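[Discussion] Sanity-checking designs against the backbone

I'm trying to build intuition for which residues belong where. Below is a structure token string of 269 positions. I'd appreciate it if someone posts a full sequence so I can compare it with mine line by line.
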């Protein structure tokens, strides 16, 4: 996909990976609508893009709310053109452990249903014109798992599965899909779980930091935007994740035993 003169929406764009992807898309000539619950942060990202010569607008938006998603789509069309690229980036870590019913409702809404609700709104229009691109920012947890947090592990697996389904179902209609699965990324999300007093949350943070190098959000944005340009589905900002994923599939029982051992080691620290 040639990004110049395309219109993109990026959720969770006030900081971290979302802000970096919005900035990278703009650097390639795309006009960007930045959405986030952090309204001031969203406007800061958009202003920085404009200061660098790009085109951007911002809106306070809950990525899991249909009305707010519609607001982002409307703003994109009004300020620039109908949306060509939708980056479903907003995500939360959720509560540690098994969580409560309400905990599950919240994390399912943000990490999974937000993607589904956005796709319902943009895909029919993309089908009718024969082009469009959906980016699901998932996690290595969607390919492996996340120690300490069932909700995060399950919803990221589901996000990967939904992205796969979109790619298979609508690929022949000219709709591209990329699924981004990083390991550790230096973002406010990782910093928040690292500083918590909850032992399960700290376990999760330690597993992330020790499983591979912690890279920058800009690193993730670079490979993500390149994947959009080349229509590549699986985006692995940490190349070593591929071998981990292959080892998991090669001997599932051995992998689970290894993860238990890894968990015991981290808890002993």
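Best answer:
Here's mine. Compare freely.
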């Amino acid at each position: 996909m040639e990004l110049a003169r395309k219109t993109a929406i990026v959720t969770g764009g006030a900081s971290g990976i979302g802000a970096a992807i919005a900035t990278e898309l703009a650097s390639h000539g795309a006009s960007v609508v930045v959405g986030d619950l952090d309204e001031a942060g969203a406007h800061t990202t958009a202003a920085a893009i404009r200061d660098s010569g790009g085109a951007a607008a911002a809106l306070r938006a809950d990525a899991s709310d249909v009305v707010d998603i519609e607001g982002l789509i409307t703003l994109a069309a009004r300020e620039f053109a109908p949306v060509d690229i939708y980056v479903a980036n907003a995500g939360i870590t959720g509560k540690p452990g098994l969580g409560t019913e309400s905990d599950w409702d919240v994390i399912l809404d943000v990490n999974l249903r937000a993607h589904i609700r956005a796709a319902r709104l943009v895909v029919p229009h993309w089908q009718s014109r024969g082009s469009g691109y959906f980016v699901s920012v998932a996690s290595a947890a969607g390919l492996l798992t996340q120690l300490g947090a069932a909700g995060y592990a399950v919803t990221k697996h589901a996000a990967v599965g939904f992205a796969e389904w979109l790619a298979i179902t609508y690929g022949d209609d000219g709709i591209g899909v990329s699924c981004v699965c990083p390991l550790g990324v230096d973002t406010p999300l990782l910093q928040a779980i690292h500083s918590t007093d909850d032992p399960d949350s700290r376990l999760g943070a330690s597993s992330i930091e020790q499983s591979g190098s912690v890279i920058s959000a800009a690193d993730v944005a670079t490979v993500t935007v390149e994947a959009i340009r080349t229509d590549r589905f699986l985006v692995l900002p940490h190349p070593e994740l591929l071998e981990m994923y292959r080892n998991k599939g090669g001997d599932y029982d051995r992998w689970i035993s290894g993860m238990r051992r890894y968990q015991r080691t981290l808890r002993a620290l």
